């Protein structure tokens, strides 16, 4: 497949490879926030996520001469981010501190009272804690699927697994998350009895 025909980001990376600095700036502008969010969900510390996201783009910049469009740009980018984050978690082997970790910022809304806002914050924190408990590859697969909007094929390419392997990872992760988040799930009366 000629990815330059179907992926505008591949075309921008190829333009950057040819010397168009504005193409790199556009790639950075379009992907910096999603890459930061991805890194944060894996590393769980704002300072490390910021540093990792910056390093991803430094590597993109330095890779311009070697870049070959063998996949969609997003797949190549997230493979780089995944490898960087997993190496960081292994190298640092930092202690996970639930207290003091920043969770996703709840969205303010006029129709949400303080109780609903607190409940949303508690759920967001519970989800983050449950994600932290997942094995690395399961966490990466969930973050790519749920938060980055990647397809099974893209996750397969990022993790270098078959699509079936990705499905199995996601299935195990969902089972674990469902178990961890049971107190927050709506009561399913009558569904189990049957």
- Number of helical elements: 9
Q: What's the pLDDT, averaged over the residues?
A: 83
Number of strands: 0
**Assembly category:** single chain
Radius of gyration: 19 Å
* Helical percentage: 55-70%
The description of the largest β-sheet is: none
Could you explain the architecture of this structure?
The longest helix has 23 residues, at 21-43. The chain is built from nine helices and no strands. It has helices at 3-6, 8-17, 21-43, 46-62, 73-92, 114-133, 136-147, 152-159, 163-180. It has 194 residues and is mainly α.
List keywords for this structure.
mainly alpha, 194 residues, 9 helices, 0% strand, disordered C terminus
Summarize the structure.
This protein has 194 residues and is an all-alpha fold.
Secondary structure layout:
Layout: H1 3-6, H2 8-17, H3 21-43, H4 46-62, H5 73-92, H6 114-133, H7 136-147, H8 152-159, H9 163-180
Helix pairs in contact: 2-3, 3-4, 3-5, 3-7, 4-5, 5-8, 7-9, 8-9
């Amino acid at each position: 497949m000629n990815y330059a025909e179907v992926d505008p980001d591949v075309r921008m990376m190829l333009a950057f490879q040819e010397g168009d600095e504005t193409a790199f700036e556009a790639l950075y502008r379009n992907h910096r926030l999603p890459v930061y969010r991805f890194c944060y969900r894996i590393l769980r510390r704002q300072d490390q996520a910021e540093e990792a996201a910056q390093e991803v783009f430094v590597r993109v910049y330095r890779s311009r001469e070697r870049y070959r469009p063998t996949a969609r740009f997003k797949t190549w980018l997230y493979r780089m981010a995944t490898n960087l984050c997993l190496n960081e978690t292994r190298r640092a082997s930092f202690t996970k501190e639930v207290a003091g970790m920043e969770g996703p910022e709840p969205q303010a809304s006029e129709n949400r009272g303080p109780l609903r806002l607190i409940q949303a914050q508690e759920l967001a924190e519970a989800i983050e804690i449950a994600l932290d408990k997942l094995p690395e590859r399961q966490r990466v697969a969930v973050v790519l699927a749920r938060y980055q909007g990647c397809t099974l094929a893209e996750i397969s390419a990022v993790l270098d697994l078959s699509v079936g392997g990705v499905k199995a990872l996601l299935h195990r992760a969902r089972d674990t998350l469902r178990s961890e988040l049971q107190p927050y799930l709506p009561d399913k009366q009558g569904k189990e009895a049957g």
